[in-house]
Write a structure and sequence with these properties.
Elements: E1 11-17, H1 23-32, E2 37-39, H2 40-50, H3 52-62, H4 75-82, H5 86-113, E3 118-122, E4 137-142, H6 145-156, H7 160-168, H8 173-179, E5 182-185, H9 192-204
Parallel strand pairs: 1-3, 1-4, 2-3, 4-5
Helix pairs in contact: 2-3, 2-5, 3-5
Length: 209
């Protein structure tokens, strides 16, 4: 991809990877180095439950049944609709992703004020949503497909067919790695900590690369 000629003083760094790649493990290592990590998937769920404007948008899309009488998000109801309706899924994403982006920018600014040199935004669908285009650097955690399948089978106790079905809902890993500024390889052979440390040093020296 084209070489970037400008880096802001405090980077917003995206980190993603296919299912079973180990991106969450990589993020935990970054956190031990004092790097703030924004878990976009967690905060999306929080915003759906708590953000007034987003809740209103979801009700407009799916009706009042999108939320239970106690105010909790009716995930099963909404999932049942979007599973067979790509247009509704696209509309839901069009409501959620901008809300998450706005929230993550505010969070990033708070971390900048606290003196952090850069932040990480972790999201499973960071590339699929186009969110990577709003960030300064994209890191992709990669691993061979057979290793990723085995990890998810062991982690979630599901058969290989179920893992492959999940993979089909994500962008092929090769397409993600082609868009990456940097790769972290989690194949069980190359140690993760030295790779993360090297990446950390590069990001701290962001004005020089």
């Amino acid at each position: 991809m084209p070489t970037k000629t400008y880096r802001p003083a405090t980077l917003r760094v995206g980190i993603t990877g296919g299912i079973g790649s180990g991106k969450t493990t990589v993020c935990r290592i970054f956190e031990t180095l004092g790097v703030p990590v924004y878990d976009a998937d967690y905060w999306a769920k929080w915003l759906i439950a708590n953000d007034t404007e987003l809740r209103a948008a979801i009700v407009a899309l799916f009706g009042s049944e999108a939320y239970l009488p106690d105010g909790a998000y009716n995930r099963a109801f909404v999932a049942g609709i979007v599973f067979n309706n790509p247009d509704k899924l696209a509309a839901l994403n069009a409501a959620v992703h901008p809300a998450v982006e706005h929230h993550s920018r505010t969070w990033h600014d708070q971390k900048v004020q606290a003196g952090h040199s850069y932040t990480l935004k972790e999201a499973a669908l960071l590339v699929e949503s186009g969110g990577h285009l709003l960030l300064d650097v994209l890191i992709v955690v990669t691993a061979p497909e057979e290793i990723r399948i085995r990890r998810v089978m062991e982690r979630d106790g599901i058969p290989e067919s179920a893992v492959r079905a999940r993979m089909r809902n994500q962008m092929p890993e090769a397409e993600k790695t082609a868009l990456a500024d940097y790769l972290i390889v989690n194949d069980g052979q190359r140690l993760l900590i030295p790779q993360v440390w090297t990446m950390h040093r590069k990001l701290l020296a962001s004005r020089d690369f």
